[in-house]
Amino acid sequence: MIKILDSTLREGEQTPGVYFAPETKLKIAEFLDHIGVDIIEAGNPAVDSEIALAVTRIANAGLKAKIGAHSLCRIDDVKKALDCNVSFLGVFFSVSSQRLQCDYNICLDEALDKIVEAITYAREQNDSLLIRYTPEDTVRSPMKNVIEAASAAVKAGANIISIADTTGYTTPFQQKRSIYYFVKILKEELAKRELYPQIEVHCHNDRGLALANALDAYRAGIDIIDVSVMGLGERAGIVDLAELLINLSDLIEEKNFWKLEYLKDLYNLVSEYSHVPISPHHPAVGKNAFTHYAGVHVTAIAKDERLYQSLNPEFFGSKSSIALGMQSGLTAVELALKQIGREELVENKYLVAKILKEIKEMAKRGTQIDIEKELIEIVNNC
User: Which of 204, 282, 292, 297 is catalytic?
Assistant: First the structure.
């Protein structure tokens, strides 16, 4: 079964301007746990003492999910993470030629020593700890460097190797730039060394392909996929939690235990405290996700919602609705009248047509018409 790692509290808080207080982080973590996320990456404790406090509180909250901390590949930072009582530790160190030469000013062997030192220390502290090593910017690094670093990490005690598409470079449309390719190559090369860690992917959305790449990784047999609420994260963010679960729920034949009905409340909570609005067109959780507007659409869904819906809104704790405006037809007015408890007016075709004319006139202002308030006013004036 594919595992989901949610990084809203770590990667998501790397969105410029986003800050979650410790009590808010715990609420978000509880929602993620209700949904059935396997791993919650709660933050990097070395960044700030308040982050360390939040990670500790979440780790001690008795949630079913494994609670993780993010850390530089450095003993002092690893110690701060382990002091938070986490059950998952993610350490990262790039082995790309450019980073080794221009940023770190070390050779590959020196990099391997640092990776092994940090992971060995963590493993010595906690034999049951789930440890992930990430060769940052994996997909733009020489594959031989990635294989050497991943092999050394696993031998030192890492359980998971993450393929990080740190800059959103991959695409499913070019074989040797696809996540599918990197997953297959990494698994094959590690298996030749009789090493079988879990493989994870962390896909950034710089080219708008994060979800496509994550699904490509699923096709390749990935074990863990990283996500965040609303795809929050550095630059263009990462894979969106809701969008991934919607698609995986279609792809996975066996019964899964994701409780999608909690998504809407979770997204509203994260949006409120991050001050990042949810797009009205966001699948499943956006205001317009199950709203029908054009006359042809409304006439059809009045007979059978499946004619213009491939998702069941009930799975997400929602229901279908209609909108009124320039694109509306008589059927939309009739349904809206029933919605406000004035279904006796539906038989008056002249009145319905007059109401529709007023609706179209009001729509020219360029804002959505409030059925519960403005339609009532239109009816009263007609």
Answer: 297
